[in-house]
């Protein structure tokens, strides 16, 4: 103890402590700088560091309960690492996320976040890992698309679930393919690239961006035509139309028979 006390009184003890303090401070600063550089390098194209930071705050406040503090996933929600900005743009932009309640699939509802906040959430999730990006405007311009070819592609790849008219349809276990009428072009594109719910993923190898644009052009062209024949009947096709005609025909026939027999009596 006496020897230790003498060392503390050594004239160079203060200098040694000062150097040690500077070394620790410099090391911490270097580590923090490295972390900041790593975070800056993870900023996805088209976004800023501020977008990522604000998106993280929104995520922690609204999404971390189900998806985990670092979006690693929990029993209540899947991991979001690698899903990309397009998945967030679709799920949050259509109001499906945050979910209102647990169920077979997330239901569309009024969005909880505005476009700026949705973009910030997308920036944060995109910074966690590479994934599909929000589509460029050139692939959403229906003036450059081919509606006829898009209709052919839609009937081959989409009509078995969404109906040939894009009206949607029932699936198994309480799930369903939603109607595509009134859906924004970018959300249709993002759905194809991310495969939400039971939908398969159509990446650029399956359906190139130009073909996706043609499909969107077909849907928007079909939607703009309205229902010139009268009632849409849910766009269910000849089965619904035949059932309506059959039901009305029988009703008219039975009504006529009742009227005739009542007249004769």
From TrEMBL:
UniProt cross-references to SUPFAM superfamilies, sorted A to Z: Cytochrome c
Sorted UniProt keywords: Cell membrane, Electron transport, Heme, Iron, Membrane, Metal-binding, Repeat, Respiratory chain, Signal, Translocase, Transmembrane, Transmembrane helix, Transport
Transmembrane segments: 243-261
EC number: 7.1.1.8
Catalytic activity: a quinol + 2 Fe(III)-[cytochrome c](out) = a quinone + 2 Fe(II)-[cytochrome c](out) + 2 H(+)(out)
Keyword Repeat attributed: yes
Domain named Cytochrome c: residues: 50-129, 145-223
Topology in the lipid bilayer: Multi-pass membrane protein
Signal peptide segment: 1-30
InterPro entries the record matches: bc1_cytC-su (IPR009152), Cyt_c-like_dom (IPR009056), Cyt_c-like_dom_sf (IPR036909), Cytochrome_c_Oxidase_Subunit (IPR050597)
UniProt subcellular location: Cell membrane
Pfam family, one: Cytochrome_CBB3
Subunit and interaction comment: The cytochrome bc1 complex is composed of a cytochrome b (QcrB), the Rieske iron-sulfur protein (QcrA) and a diheme cytochrome c (QcrC) subunit.
Protein's UniProt name: Cytochrome bc1 complex cytochrome c subunit
Lineage of source species: Bacteria, Bacillati, Actinomycetota, Actinomycetes, Micrococcales
């Amino acid at each position: 103890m006496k020897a230790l006390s003498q060392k503390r009184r050594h004239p160079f003890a203060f200098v040694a402590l000062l150097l040690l303090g500077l070394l620790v401070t410099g090391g911490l600063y270097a580590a923090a700088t490295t972390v900041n550089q790593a975070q800056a390098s993870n900023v996805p194209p088209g976004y800023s560091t501020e977008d990522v930071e604000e998106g993280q705050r929104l995520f922690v406040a609204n999404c971390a309960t189900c998806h985990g503090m670092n979006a690693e996933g929990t029993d209540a929600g899947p991991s979001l690492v690698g899903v990309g900005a397009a998945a967030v743009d679709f799920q949050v932009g259509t109001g499906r996320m945050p979910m209102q309640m647990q169920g077979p699939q997330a239901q569309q509802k009024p969005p909880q976040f505005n476009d700026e906040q949705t973009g910030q959430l997308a920036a944060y999730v995109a910074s966690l890992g590479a994934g599909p990006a929000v589509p460029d405007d050139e692939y959403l311009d229906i003036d450059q698309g081919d509606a006829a070819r898009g209709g052919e592609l839609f009937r081959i790849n989409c009509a078995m679930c969404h109906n040939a008219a894009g009206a949607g349809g029932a699936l198994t276990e309480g799930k369903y393919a939603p109607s595509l009428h009134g859906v924004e072009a970018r959300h249709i594109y993002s759905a194809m690239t991310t495969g939400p719910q039971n939908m398969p993923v159509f990446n650029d190898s399956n359906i190139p961006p130009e073909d996706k644009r043609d499909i969107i052009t077909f849907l928007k062209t079909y939607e703009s035509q309205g229902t010139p024949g009268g009632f849409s009947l849910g766009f269910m096709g000849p089965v619904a139309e035949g059932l309506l005609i059959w039901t009305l025909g029988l009703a008219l026939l039975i009504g006529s028979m009742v009227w005739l027999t009542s007249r004769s009596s």
